[in-house]
Design goal:
- It is a single chain.
- The chain is an alpha/beta fold.
- It has 14 helices and 15 strands.
């Protein structure tokens, strides 16, 4: 309903909403015509033409050729225009920093991984490294593209102000990360936000992964800590304080290994990347970069190493047990595992599927799959989140 007391503001809000509807349709169905947009959004053709002209002018849509596979005259087709704007996402891992810049369509303009010991470097040095990576990325993006925002993914709890109350995988407590990054960048001219790695990874899955049409989706992060990004009814579940999805301390084995929280047998203590390496590579010693050790485990598993394969099967059963709990609570259509869990999926998932099937009372139950987005999922989700204002129908400034 449009209020007669504030017609200008309300009509403006309607236009913003309609603009978002046009962008959303083109993103999902490109290439498509103006008539296609009108037919599927319910907007009249004149409104669609006006909105499309505006979006083309601001570099968010572009025309691409004609199609004759239709009744009547050929139609000019529309696609998203990723040439002018990008969102920037950074992921802080215990042993790495990942940067992704992506446009409206989600195609990465750049993807970088830098080994970095964030877990031992501390918040101050990590912020310096993040700022240096942002400056380098902005330089590489160049003057022809505008960065609309930056979102940093962190494996821990994040409050609405961008502060990190706790990130055990990094050894952080009470870190004002968003404010610190803004200060290090000296007011960069674009918004800076922080969110949990799990939330941003599930956003990337929902937008760019094979399950983009899934309205009820869970992404389990792999890393020193296990977190869950939760999409329910097409919306991200954050909880009352923004801490939803902190599943790393889900108890699975009362006699399991000790967890940093003081209890035993938590999901992170059993399936976190450090726990996996300790169990399967007892000779590994202190690990500062997890990727080579996970590759070593993969090589041993491919070669048929019996202790490694047995350990992965047992871990797969635990993964299936954890997913069955999430399935009972949330009833997702798909649970996607990322990080080292995705890298080890060929050996984890068969046992996990069997355990899940045995514990699921109503077939066919939830699908359990490996992410295809790799370690960049959180950073890609950050880049996507940085575009959120534009995707919601607000035109870029300038």
């Amino acid at each position: 309903m449009i209020s007669i007391d504030r017609p200008t503001a309300d009509l403006g809000d309607v236009r913003v909403t309609n603009r978002a509807a046009v962008l959303r349709h083109v993103r999902r169905h490109a290439p498509c015509s103006r008539a296609d947009v009108a037919a599927h959004t319910g907007l009249n053709k004149a409104t669609v033409s006006s909105l499309v002209a505006e979006l083309i002018e601001h570099g968010l849509l572009r025309e691409t050729g004609l199609t004759e596979n239709r009744v009547g005259r050929p139609a000019t087709m529309l696609v998203l225009d990723g040439s002018r704007y990008v969102g920037l996402g950074l992921r802080v891992g215990a042993d790495e920093l990942v940067a992704v810049a992506a446009g409206p369509g989600g195609d990465p303009v750049l993807t970088w991984r830098r080994a970095f010991p964030a877990a031992t470097a501390g918040p101050e040095e990590t912020v310096k490294a993040l700022a240096a990576l942002v400056r380098r990325a902005v330089t590489r993006i160049g003057a022809d593209r505008t960065v609309l925002g930056l979102t940093v993914a962190v494996p821990g709890l994040v409050d609405p102000d961008g502060d990190v109350p706790a990130a055990p995988a990094l050894g952080w407590r009470g870190v004002p990360l968003a404010a610190s990054v803004r200060r290090a960048l000296r007011d960069p001219g674009f918004p800076v936000a922080v969110d949990t790695e799990a939330n941003l990874a599930v956003l990337a899955e929902r937008r760019h992964g094979p399950y983009a049409a899934t309205t009820d989706l869970v992404h389990l992060t792999g890393g020193p800590a296990i977190g869950a990004g939760l999409i329910s009814g097409g919306r991200l579940l954050r909880g009352g304080r923004g801490f939803a999805g902190d599943v790393g301390h889900l108890p699975l084995a009362a006699d399991g290994p000790a967890c940093d929280c003081g209890r035993r047998g938590c999901l992170t203590a059993l399936l976190g990347v450090d726990a996996v390496i300790r169990r399967l590579l007892p000779d590994a010693g202190p690990v500062t970069d997890h990727l080579p050790e996970i590759e070593r485990i993969r090589a041993l598993a491919r070669a048929g190493d019996e202790p490694v394969r047995t350990g992965l099967t047992e871990m797969g059963r635990l993964l299936g047990q954890a997913v069955s709990v999430l399935s009972g609570l949330l009833d997702p259509e798909v649970v996607v595992v990322g990080g080292h869990l995705a890298a080890l999926a060929p050996w984890l998932l068969p046992a996990a599927h069997a355990e899940l099937a045995a514990r699921t009372p109503v077939p066919p139950g939830v699908r359990l799959e490996a992410s295809t987005l790799g370690s960049a999922a959180g950073a890609l989700g950050g880049a996507t989140a940085a575009m959120a204002t534009v995707e919601a129908g607000r035109l870029p400034a300038g």
